[in-house]
Specification:
Elements lengths: L1 H18 L6 H15 L3 H24 L4 H23 L2 H37 L1
Helix pairs in contact: 1-2, 1-3, 2-5, 3-4, 4-5
């Protein structure tokens, strides 16, 4: 547990210094760091190398989304190329294709969990509004 907390704090510190911009969605980002760290069983050394690369990966995905707002196929192609590029980078850090692939899987799983949670909250708000309107 101590290791996870240390890694989490290191990741947060690096996030602030690497990106050099105000943090938005800090809670979600913190949870994502903890989730991926746990899924990959990152050591402290691996985490120090992994998180800066992961944040670059995340930034490239975000930039592709901005650049390809209207062309869905171009966006998907750009994301695929970014994932291939970073899978190799992750493999260098994590030592195997399996663990490198697990990064992408854990990222997708976390994003799906967040989407489901947001949908559940929206449904609860809708039900609450309907009850108060009655």
């Amino acid at each position: 547990m101590k290791r996870v907390v240390v890694i989490l704090l290191m990741g947060l510190l690096q996030l602030g210094t690497i990106q050099g911009q105000p943090k938005t969605g800090g809670n979600v980002q913190t949870l994502k760091i903890a989730y991926i760290t746990k899924q990959l069983s990152l050591t402290t050394e691996e985490a120090q190398k992994f998180w800066p690369v992961y944040f670059n990966y995340f930034d490239e995905i975000k930039q592709a989304r901005v650049n390809q707002k209207t062309d869905v196929l171009a966006f998907e192609e750009a994301v695929l190329n970014i994932r291939k590029k970073y899978r190799d980078e992750f493999k260098k850090i994590l030592g195997s294709n399996e663990r490198a692939g697990k990064v992408l899987t854990a990222d997708r799983e976390f994003n799906n969990m967040v989407k489901k949670e947001l949908q559940n909250r929206a449904e609860q708000r809708k039900k609450l509004r309907q009850k108060t309107a009655e």
